[in-house]
Amino acid sequence: MLGAGRSLLFRPQQGVSRLGVDRLLRRHAGIRRKEPRVTDRLFFAVVPDAETAETIAERAAAWRARHGLTGRLLKAAHFHVNLAPVHEGIGLPDAGEIADWVARAREIPMPSFRVAFDRLTSFANGALVLTGEEATIGLEVLQQRLSDALDDTPRPARRYTPHVTLLHDGRHVEAEPVEPIAWTVREVALVHGRAGQTTHRCLTRLPLG
Q1: Which tops the pLDDT comparison, 39 or 103?
Q2: Structure confidence at residue 195 as a pLDDT band (50, 70, 90)
Q3: Which of 43, 47, 85, 124 has the most neighbouring CB atoms within 10 Å?
Q4: DSSP code at position 199
């Protein structure tokens, strides 16, 4: 037990090497230095039309009440299916880089298609989402083609689960079938999101076909 008014002098020779001390000092210095926080994100997404978005919002409110959830629902205008993130950092990248992403995405050979979400479930991160199976295959194809177009070296297909996030909540909801919510996907949007906020801004829309 330390006596009142006494201080403990740490000596490197007391069981810790000088190298160990240096590592500890660097680690603590790293903790003290806060890394810059991400403020802006850009991603390509599929956005439902306004009527479908309102339907999702109404159904989501009912599911939230039925399952006793308290997480805040996303606004109807913010529902989307994330396809490919292209930027995460402080501020936006320069206009030339954004224009390059848009030009690549514009060349994707993909016609419009029908999509339907018929399952409600929770992800491990607490997100309550709509998912589907066979009726979301078009989104999987679109996501892969978009990823290949944005990547100078196309990679093997990566695991991707098309979904629409409705809210976040600590309570887990087991997967359950729901009445399908469907719409025709006719375009891809480049969306700007601010970290820590629920505001999304569409920078451009690229028609399919």
Answers
A1: 103
A2: confident
A3: 47
A4: -
Q: Which residue has the tokens 């996907």?
A: 185
The tokens describing 57, both together, are 């919002």
**Cα gap 209→207, rounded to integer Å:** 7
Q: Which residues pair with 42 in a beta bridge?
A: 87, 192
Q: What percent of the chain has pLDDT over 70?
A: 78
- Give yes or no for residue 5 having a pLDDT over 50: no
Which 8-state DSSP code applies to residue 5?
Answer: T
Contacts 24+ apart (CB under 8 A), 87-90: 87/40, 87/41, 87/42, 87/43, 88/38, 88/40, 88/41, 88/42, 89/38, 89/39, 89/40, 90/36, 90/37, 90/38, 90/39, 90/40
Q: Which domains does the chain have, with CATH numbers?
A: 40-207 (3.90.1140.10)
Ramachandran bin of 196, using left for φ above 0, alpha for ψ from -120 to 50, beta for the remaining angles: left
Cβ contacts of residue 68 below 8 Å, gap of 6+? 171
Q: What is the mean pLDDT of residues 21-36?
A: 56
Q: Cα dihedral angle (155, 156, 161, 163), rounded to 10 degrees?
A: 30
pTM of the model: 0.79
Q: Which secondary-structure segment (H or E) carries 187? A: strand 187-194
- Could you please report the per-residue DSSP string of 47-58? ---HHHHHHHHH
